[in-house]
């Protein structure tokens, strides 16, 4: 499918004249991703538009605010953790976003019925492969290679709604820090990481429990509390480096399948509490399965877009993908710790078109997957799609037919769209929706 984020020397109508939407793609046996072929199956839902984002690596592009925030985080860990004068943390920021379901889910103890595995949440290449939904997908392979302390940085992919703060691609920094007994309790031989009934020689035989909200059953309370203190101290210090010493914060207890206990850190920003990271003590089963049997570890994950938008007052997540010099020059050659407030280059008007349709008999307003609709709209409209929202749902009292109405907000980031151009794109989307979902336009 053709990308419709058009520069001023091209018109939408010129692109649309070449655009041929067909549902025949569903029967294609192979999926080509950057020259590598995968066999498709009933789980395949990755789209050409999403594939086009692979390899962009915004977190590594000079003058992009995501790269600036990434470097500030890396600098903090380099300066805060050293071994014999060298940084203790290894940085991995060019890992392939194509991972297996084992890496993304099984290695992290995510249950087979967990909602995060759903096709409506992830971009599947096939049943065995997908675009990583979090950087933690690489945690076990790095632990298996013998690493103790590392940061994983890159692009992650999740199907989601469309608005100014959500995009199907965003960037994360995930980290792991593990310690053995002599590192955690230096000079204190009487203190232990593991409870006496934990068999360190045969760790796979120990059934680890997370019923106790304070700790995992294999860990001593002393080890868990010390790791918790270290974790929270380091992440609060990082937050203060980014947002200033006076930033208000609070910890909220949370649940993640791969850590226990787990927390989220929130900051008071723009007169409301905003979550900026999740963290916790790594489940011991993950460590044992990856190799380390004598360590305890903590892990954390931060979203670069959320941090950059807050730090630099960037109002629309799509701007991170802009190549407009008016945007990028605002972050050019600045001091990493400089306070920068984004200034809009110009404000282009929105065009809003509604789309109403009757669902076929095999679908209802409760079973229709909005993320499927959002992906189709984005695949055709590209980056001129600013927002899609469900405006109305209706069940006809006599026919019992189900109807949905979505508002699609169009806005170009670099020029003014005409209503005629938008109407042309809207018609192509309508046809694609009819062909794909079997709906009838109202």
From TrEMBL:
Domain FDX-ACB: 346-442
Species of the source: Mythimna separata (Oriental armyworm)
The protein's role, per its UniProt record: Is responsible for the charging of tRNA(Phe) with phenylalanine in mitochondrial translation.
Short name of any one Pfam family annotated for the protein: FDX-ACB
Gene Ontology molecular function, alphabetical: ATP binding; phenylalanine-tRNA ligase activity; tRNA binding
Compartments, record wording: Mitochondrion matrix
Predominant localisation class: mitochondrion
Enzyme class: ligase
Family matches, as CDD domains: PheRS_alpha_core
Classification via InterPro entries: aa-tRNA-synth_II, aa-tRNA-synth_II/BPL/LPL, Fdx_antiC-bd, Fdx_antiC-bd_sf, Phe-tRNA-synth_IIc_mito, Phenylalanyl-tRNA_Synthase
Source organism superkingdom: Eukaryota
Family affiliation: Belongs to the class-II aminoacyl-tRNA synthetase family.
A GO BP annotation: phenylalanyl-tRNA aminoacylation
PANTHER family: PHENYLALANINE--TRNA LIGASE, MITOCHONDRIAL, PHENYLALANYL-TRNA SYNTHETASE
EC number: 6.1.1.20
Keywords assigned: Aminoacyl-tRNA synthetase, ATP-binding, Ligase, Mitochondrion, Nucleotide-binding, Protein biosynthesis, Transit peptide
Gene Ontology CC terms: mitochondrial matrix
Domain Aminoacyl-transfer RNA synthetases class-II family profile: start-end pairs: 69-344
UniProt catalytic activity: tRNA(Phe) + L-phenylalanine + ATP = L-phenylalanyl-tRNA(Phe) + AMP + diphosphate + H(+)
Protein name: phenylalanine--tRNA ligase
